[in-house]
Amino acid sequence: MSIWKRFKKSYFLYSFLRDPLAMGSFVLLAFFVIAGFSAPLTAPVNPYDASQIDVMDSELPPVWMGGADSHFILGTDAQGRDLLSTILYGTRVSVIIGLGAVALQAMIGILVGLVSGYRGGKIDSLLMRIADVQLSFSTYMVAIFLGAICQAAFGLAKYEQIAVPFLIIVIGLAEWPQYARTVRASVLAEKKKEYVEAARVIGLPASRIMWRHILPNTLTPVLVISTVQVANAIMSEAALSFIGLGMPPTKPSLGSLIKSGFEYFFSGSWWITVFPGVVLVGLILSINLLGDWMRDFLNPKLYKN
Q1: Are 255 and 241 in contact (CB under 8 A)?
Q2: What are phi and psi of 45, to 5 degrees?
Q3: What is the pTM of this model?
Q4: Alpha carbon separation from 100 to 159, 162, 164, 233 (Å, rounded)
Q5: Which residues form a coiled coil (predicted)?
Q6: What is the spatial distance between Cα 260 and Cα 277, in angstroms, rounded to a whole number?
């Protein structure tokens, strides 16, 4: 039986299709992701192309308000960029940063958690103390420290080109202890089971036991925490951009769009901040609702038929 046929008959799909909230969240999330990654094809204009931007079009309202231009459905921002296009491109940037940061968190956290939980002893104590020290530094403190070094070393112009990988590294380095602690707790429970003892008896190396036998049995909590961490990473990017430590105004993300329009909010150009804010809330809400459903489904003590 093929993987697709097994999936169609799985209890996972059956439970998912019976939950309207999970289905609605998935549809909303899929819409945002598809719209963001198809921005080069679907966006009316390219906000990165200066030849397509006219500063005389700045702060135009949405089409249903007086003084609007029919070419700009959601209006324009203070730079004269089409707001719909910048939101599409900004959504793509925010999702890329969220996924990239979570991938980095997972790689570091899983490695540290596996080694710490399996080896135990002094190695466990050392790695967990490092994790405790890391938890004492917030994402914003790490961003300020690394951002100052990065901008001093490369300059502001170069920083604009490396802003996306910079934020991925900053958020990833700041949040990996969440994975490390989760994986360590699972490893401590798994390594006492009989299949691990049997693997040791037949002489399998520790690395093979950790990666081929223990790790697959610890992925359930990792999958659950990953959904939450993606939403947290997107929120962290938005917050960093809002306080000027994230994406520059010339490289739109949802956070930088909200920041760039905030100073015009009380002057009447509310749409520059409100529309990106609505998209950000909808994106994070859909991810969190899917994460809650997955947590309940994968935990038999919580899930109800």
Answers
A1: yes
A2: -135, 165
A3: 0.86
A4: 18, 14, 9, 9
A5: none
A6: 12
Q: Cβ distance 227 to 292 under 8 Å?
A: no
One DSSP character per residue, 31-98 reads HHHHHHHTHHHH-SS-TT-GGG--GGGTTPPPTTSTT--TT-TT-B-TTS-BHHHHHHHHHHHHHHHH
Query: Residue 127: helix, strand or coil by DSSP?
Result: helix
Give the helix/strand (H/E) hosting 135: helix 121-135
18 within some domain:
no
User: Residue length, the chain?
Assistant: 305
* CA atoms of 257 and 13, how far apart (whole Å): 37
Considering the domain boundaries, does residue 79 fall inside one? no
Residue 21 lies in a domain: no
pLDDT, one tens digit per residue, over 85-115 is 889 998 999 999 999 999 999 999 999 999 9
Can you give the pLDDT at residue 212? 84
CA within 13 Å, CB half, 126: 6
Q: How confident is the model at residue 305 (pLDDT cuts 50, 70, 90)?
A: very low
Tokens at 292, concatenated:
């809650």
Sign of the CA dihedral 162, 275, 259, 234? negative
Residues 279, 285, 291, 294, CA torsion sign: negative
Task: Report CA 254 to chain centroid distance, whole Å.
Answer: 12
In this predicted structure, which of 23-27, 94-98, 128-132, 160-164 has the lowest mean pLDDT? 160-164
CATH code for the domain of 146:
1.10.3720.10
Whether the CB-CB separation of 115 and 127 falls below 8 Å is answered with: yes
Whether 196 and 126 have beta carbons less than 8 Å apart is answered as: no
pLDDT tens digit sequence for 158-216: 777 788 888 898 888 888 888 988 899 888 888 888 888 888 888 888 888 888 888 88
Domain count within the chain: 1
